[in-house]
Amino acid sequence: MGLATHLGPWLLGTVKNTSVNNPVLGQIRNVGPTVVSQSVSCSGSTLTASLVLPAGSQILGFTFLTTTTSAAATVAITVGGVAAVTATDVGTAAGLSNLQIATTGVSVCNNVGTTDVYVIATRSNTTLAGTMIVTYVVRNSDGSTVPSTYTA
After folding, report:
1. pTM value?
2. CA distances (Å), 32 to each of 13, 46, 97, 128, 139, in order?
3. For every one of its 152 residues, what pLDDT tens digit does the chain have, with 9 covering 90 and above?
């Protein structure tokens, strides 16, 4: 698979322009930022795993995909040193766990800041094996989107 670099926004759909408050097409450009994800394997004797998000990202959610059954375990996640997900039970069976963003993590998830940040998952025990998945919106490094307004 090849690599590609892209900084949004995307022009989406088959209609180039659309309208929010007016039924006449052509009033507002039909564009939006890109939603993407990154993932990192969490297994073995190291209790932490990390990845890097680009500056300005807006985090939409965290998921832990348990691949190997284990004793009861929790996962906590920090973004740029801020507790985004406090210790959350991911159960003992294989499957997906959607992790709740903590009150302390709301601000950093809305905009990770003007520099790239580490996202670090910490497991409570080494028997838990899986993948941390972070879904986020690619935005400008200051957190703004282009276009900043949606007028024709």
Report:
1. 0.82
2. 11, 38, 28, 37, 10
3. 556 666 666 766 666 665 555 555 555 666 677 889 999 999 888 899 999 999 999 999 999 999 987 788 899 999 999 999 999 998 888 899 999 999 999 999 999 999 999 999 999 988 889 999 999 998 887 777 765 555 54
Fold topology of 35-137: Jelly Rolls (2.60.120)
In sequence order, what DSSP letters do the residues of the chain get, joined into one string?
A: --------PEE-SS-SEE-SS-SSTTSEE-EEPPEEEEEEEE-SS--EEEEEE-TT-EEEEEEEEEEE--SS-EEEEEETTEEEEEEEE--SSSEEEEEPPPGGGHHHHH---SS-EEEEEEES-TT-EEEEEEEEE---TTS--SSSS---
